[in-house]
Amino acid sequence: MTLVIDFGTVNTVAMLDGRLVTVDGAPWLPSVVHDGVVGADAAALAHGQAARDLKERLDPDEVRALFARVLDAARDQGGVVGAIVVTHPAGWPPERVEVLVSAAGPMARAVPEPVAVAAVHGDETVLVVDAGGGPWQVTAVRGQDVLASSALPFGGNDVDRLIVERVRPSLRSVTADGALLESARTGKELLSRHDSAEIVLPDHRAVRLDRAEFERLVSADVDRLAALVSEVGGPVSAGRVLLVGGSSRMPLLARRIGEVTGLPVTTDPEPETAVVRGAHVLTRPAALEDPLAPPPQLAAGPGAASPPFSGPPFAAGQRPDPMDDPLAPPGPPAPPPSSAGNEPGGRTTATAFEASVRPAATTVPRRRPLALVILLLLVAAAAVVFGGERPVGGNPVAAGGPPPLPEAPVPPAVDGNEVINGEVATFTSGALGVAAEYRHPAGNTFEVTVTGIETAVTAPQPYLEAPDGFRWLVLRLHVVNTEGPDFPHDPMENVAVLDDRGQWLRQPYGYGQIACAEGAPPATRIPAEGEVDVCGVVSVPEATPVAAVLFGVRSPEAQAPLRFPVDVPAVRDRAAPTRVVGTAGGPAVTVDGLRARVDLVLTPSGYLGTQVPAPGHRFVVVRAAITATGQRHVTVLLRDDRGALLSGIVEVATGCPPLPATLAPEEPVYGCHVFEVAVDTPVTGVTFLGRRPDATRWPTWRA
């Protein structure tokens, strides 16, 4: 078998016999080497500061160690390595290519990355845009010939740094460590699929970034890339543009390139694996399956894992998102890693690497008969159609299948009482259409006017149609910075609405700015002595009456927020639909790539010590134990009796760590999340923010 290795700036991906090689439980290996340790462990040991520029530096020993780890994983999973193909950017000088080939061993050969991507297009002339973590590269390819190539000195890692610079004013420390860069990368990925994301700061606070503002951050560099595509493609009469690399998921990229070139733009459905799949096609006399289809994993043991249906590939023994395939049979468990030739701490010796490239007498695992796979899919489809929506009480494990995901214990229960502040919440009075003054804790004095409010089923892009049971409130404000410096933040971050029970509403992924007029970009700052029009949307349940528009922050040291009374009545008497998957306080449930057990604590004084909520509010604590099948960004929310979703606050629970924002694959974690809820607001469930913007489909544990 031929092992194909795509050595990327951020991650290295490998394929053997048409199946992705899983390394440490993931279908990729971070391209990081630190003190002889490789991959995710290297990044963790260096606290996010490990050598992310390995591809640029190209140290032969480090590249050899990285490739050795991939080879070990391929052989551990039942693979017989007979030859090796490594990929490299077009235009690399021979001496750099030779470093890769030498590191891979005597049976290795090299293939340019864009040639691999274009392999499935025969002799058609195409433009390959590789928008990965390193410099974005544009290459014209016909067959296996590179006609022209050029790179932009900007890439996905630079996008991450732009996000860090955007949130830097919110930092309490002047340093931005590797964890913040990782949070920025996660936020970038979320913004490719959702309308907004929270960038988690090192002190566990979060800054919201919506897609419109994100696209403004990167717009100039995306324009440069589109111009480069036009320049490279001009002389060659290309028929299409192929987008690959992790950043190709950004909708702005395909849209802008299509506008500038006038060519059809195809974004690979699995851009992170496009190079390795194409290179695999080049190793075969003929492709027997659709080379563009997302590949299955390299299965370990006596059976092949089922291929994923959509989204990132899953490692053997992991389950796809049940919303995509609720009854997909899990793959077999991976065998224990071989210790031969390995040093402690994930090191692989050069001797072990040289031995690993020799052919070994290993039996190739048999694949499941096609008829069985089809039967399983039909059973899954029937269950989806006829099963209805019902609570999920955990996952059955098929005979011979993998064990359930490891489970962390729920944080210890602590006896206590309710924590309620019975004082009446205070506000600074305002009125629609009348300017009111607000002294912001940042040192600015604003003159704020709410000029209009209306309801809508469909909001302007990027929000579009509201989910079932919800509606949009479209808000219009005029803000003047009468005193103080430039205010370099999204003004909408200071806006919320208040329901009839005194609950602040600002639903995640259902809140943000829109253009006030066609062609007018949303305001990203308020200049010193300047003024801006601010237009935004807030998603609220149709069963929720809205009593006021708010401007300001909740802080004992700040002026009480401005309150502009409005009268927006409810238009239905039942709550928005909810996808119930389990019960708070009940058994663990596996759903949407997570195994979670949650508990709702309405008497949390034992966790909170002397902390006091805002006037008119009470504290509620969620205890949770979570394990994810893959790296996931997790946000925990409360749901009220009308379907409104409530965000947590930055408070620390005594004896219970805060839940991390990002979960590592198959690493059980537990922790607590603190919420400040209006006294008269009933809590009916705990909801995890989903992968899709439709809040009615996010998994909820009924209280």
UniProtKB/TrEMBL annotation:
Origin species: Actinophytocola algeriensis
Source organism, top-level taxon: Bacteria
Annotated Pfam families: HSP70
Keywords: ATP-binding, Chaperone, Nucleotide-binding, Stress response
Protein name listed in UniProt: Hsp70 protein
Low complexity bias: start-end ranges: 298-320
Keyword ATP-binding part of the UniProt annotation: yes
Annotated Pro residues bias: 327-338
